[in-house]
Design goal:
The chain is mostly helical. It contains eight helices and two strands; from the N terminus they run ααααβαααβα.
Length: about 150
């Protein structure tokens, strides 16, 4: 349940970041259209142009990937994980490498990888943990407070 709650917290943050990214991208695209640097082509408006743009999709994916990789790499905790005292780490307690973060994010399947625990309750590893060779631990209140006070 902790993982689900942390995932929901993080989902709200990521959606907010994607909205800000979309606002900026929309504004820059509108500016480029008004300056006639680009044209709408076969699309009826800016929103349709962005919906068909692979660069826009890639930008949104990069923002979400950056969010998770940044937090997992620097502290082992996203905002939601901090609230629920969860930390992702290597089995020896070290922080994840960047490659592990990317593998973990890709194999999480938008959070559906957490349901793997239901089928393997003895291991406590989600699909993304198993594939990225890491683990999620529940920290004590004292350790979590110490880590938050360092920031």
């Amino acid at each position: 349940m902790r993982r689900l709650a942390a995932w929901l917290y993080d989902l709200l943050v990521v959606v907010s970041l994607l909205m800000v990214t979309g606002f900026i991208y929309f504004g820059l695209t509108s500016l480029a259209l008004s300056m006639e640097w680009i044209s709408l082509g076969p699309y009826e408006d800016t929103a349709a142009l962005l919906s068909a743009s692979h660069w826009y999709q890639l930008c949104l994916l990069a923002v979400a990937l950056f969010f998770y990789c940044w937090f997992w790499r620097t502290s082992g905790q996203t905002i939601g994980m901090r609230a629920w005292r969860l930390r992702v780490q290597n089995t020896d307690g070290r922080r994840l490498r960047l490659a592990q973060c990317i593998i973990r994010a890709a194999s999480a399947l938008l959070g559906l990888g957490n349901f793997w625990i239901l089928f393997n309750p003895h291991s406590k590893l989600a699909l993304q943990d198993k594939i990225a060779d890491c683990e999620v631990i529940v920290m004590s209140k004292e350790l979590n407070k110490q880590l938050l006070d360092k920031k």
